[in-house]
Amino acid sequence: METLLDPLSYAFFQKGLIVAALSGALLGFIGVYIVLRGMSYIGHGLSHAIFGGFAAMQLFAAQLYIVGAGLWGIASALAITNVARRSRLGADAAIGVITTASFALGVALFARFGTSGPAFDNALFGSILGITNSQILWLVLVTLFTVGVVFVRYRALMFTTFDPEVANVSGVKTGRTEALLMIMLSLAILVTLTVIGVTLVAAMLVIPAVIARMLTDSFARMLIISTIAGTFSGLAGMYLSYYAEVPSGTMIVLVGAVLFIIVLAATGARGLRRSAGMDSHAPRPTREVVS
What we know:
- The protein contains 13 helices and no strands.
- By secondary structure, it is an all-alpha fold.
- It has a single domain (about 1-275), classed as Orthogonal Bundle (ABC transporter involved in vitamin B12 uptake, BtuC).
- The longest helix has 29 residues, at about 250-275.
- It is globular and about 60 Å long.
């Protein structure tokens, strides 16, 4: 027991534990929508796009980097949605072009002008050091915003996730709903970068959701299980990162991977069949008009 309580005597670890738990919960929650839509790659792409904004904003407005990077990420996400809907390019191609270009621009600015500071380094691999009260506040606000939007727009989001074509003719404003989802995803990635890192944040969008899908066919239960799995990964990963002296994001993802292996061993072929056809086995919402 003393081993578990000892890290709690440090203020930086207390803050890190809060951020890790909230980050895992937030990414696990919103990851269900991303994975069921077959858009797992967008988490990886947007994290790199936001990192480009992160690097650029520290050059010109270091104190407002989170606002600038957030706007950069939202603009990238909306551009992806717009290009995919209005052109012959698929979503994966739009993601590849826009996010890599955004990342390249940020790297070019960094290479040309340089930048420094723990915030930039932590954004790469995640760290429990240097977490500020403002970062915790941003994370709490984004989490509350995401939960509130899902609560209000639950049926529209679910309908658009499983059958966007039918949802569109049934009265759901799918374009607006998809844009709202992309905004939530961009904000979620932004506020979790410093604890999980740009190189690993996409994994925490996918792993908890896949674990949940292997355990249940219910969409509502998927949201709950994925959130719990993400929270546990965050808490356990934070503790392990403290004792192993490795970046927090690395351990959080490794804990999630271990959970995946345990669930895979427990569910066997049944779990694999569920996760192989993520949306094809999921229950579809009733066809009524929702806006």
